[in-house]
Amino acid sequence: MKFLKVGRVAIITRGRYAGKKVVIIQPQDTGSKSHPFPHALVAGIERYPSQVTRRMSKARQTKRSKVKPFIKTVNYNHLMPTRYTLELEGLKGVVTNDTFKEVSQREDAKKTVKKALEERYQSGKNRWFFTPLRF
Q1: Contact 22/40 with Cβ under 8 angstroms?
Q2: How far apart are CA 24 and CA 40, in angstroms?
Q3: What is the pTM of this model?
Q4: Is residue 83, in this structure, part of any structural domain at all?
Q5: In sequence order, what DSSP letters do the residues of 66-127 get, joined into one string?
Q6: 132: in domain
């Protein structure tokens, strides 16, 4: 798939995370031994940040701008690419196929993704990515 490149924002259409936005970290057009179908490693948002207004206290604002991330291997059939992209250079080395082998590695990767996404949210870039889909 020529449009499922690194950094492309997609929406998951099936399963537990259906309707959640993800960013593609590592596309695999040919598949691998463990997943013999075209798939991609993605990092997405399980729980979006809540709305923040000016009159809220600083503490409340930080609490409401927390993001709960997830990382997953997703079949291309269950990804719907969007026109948006998200530059997350730091995550390429963090989330790899080996990340999923051990729970501790997975947790560490999630923490790194969380930090990266929250920084991106605080800076005010990619506003669309951090708003939940409205059906």
Answers
A1: no
A2: 7
A3: 0.88
A4: yes
A5: --EEEEEEEEGGGEEEEEEE---GGGTTTS-GGGGT-HHHHHHHHHHHHHHHHHHHHTT--G
A6: no
The values of phi and psi at residue 46, to 5°, are: -80, -40
Question: H/E element holding 64?
Answer: helix 58-64
Find the CATH number of the domain harbouring 55: 2.30.30.770
Contact 27, 5 (CB under 8 A): yes
Contact in structure between 29 and 68 (CB atoms under 8 Å): no
Instruction: Report yes or no on 135 lying in a domain.
Output: no
91 neighbors 43 (Cβ within 8 angstroms): yes
* CA distances (Å), origin 114, targets 56, 62, 111, 118: 23, 14, 5, 6
pLDDT tens for the chain, 135 residues long, are: 677 888 899 999 999 999 999 999 989 888 888 889 999 999 999 999 999 999 999 999 999 999 999 999 999 999 999 999 988 777 777 888 888 888 988 899 899 999 999 999 998 888 899 999 987
| Number of domains making up the chain | 1
